[in-house]
């Protein structure tokens, strides 16, 4: 059973690696407005959250910002018919 679980984890790691190294960068480079939108999302989070000291805090810790970025990649998939 542990061998089966380790194989499953390896597949998940390979899938995440492919997403991280190929698909997500392609989505961001394919859509030039995406980077501007991300910067805008981060600036809005910093402006509205007094505990955010710089853009790294919302980028690393805020689930709402993470959700927006996931939506942007998902929307790119949808518009490309993938």
Topology:
Layout: H1 2-30, H2 32-48, H3 56-61, H4 63-79
Helix content: over 70%
**Morphology:** globular
Number of strands: 0
Biggest sheet layout: none
| Tally of contiguous helical segments | 4
Nearest-integer average pLDDT = 78
The string of secondary-structure elements, in order, is HHHH
Straight-line N-to-C gap: 34 Å
Low-pLDDT regions:
1-9
The radius of gyration is 16 Å
Q: Structural class from helices and strands?
A: mainly alpha
Strand content: under 5%
Number of domains: 1
Could you describe the 3D structure shown?
The chain is an all-alpha fold. It has one domain (2-79). It contains 4 helices and no strands. It has helices at 2-30, 32-48, 56-61, 63-79. Helix 1 crosses helix 2 (32-48). Residues 1-9 have low confidence and may be disordered.
């Amino acid at each position: 059973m542990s061998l089966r679980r380790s194989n499953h984890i390896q597949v998940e790691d390979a899938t995440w690696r492919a997403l991280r190294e190929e698909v997500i960068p392609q989505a961001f480079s394919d859509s030039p407005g995406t980077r501007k939108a991300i910067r805008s999302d981060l600036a809005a989070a910093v402006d509205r959250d007094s505990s955010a000291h710089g853009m790294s805090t919302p980028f690393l810790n805020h689930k709402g910002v993470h959700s927006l970025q996931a939506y942007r990649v998902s929307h790119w998939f949808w518009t490309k018919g993938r």
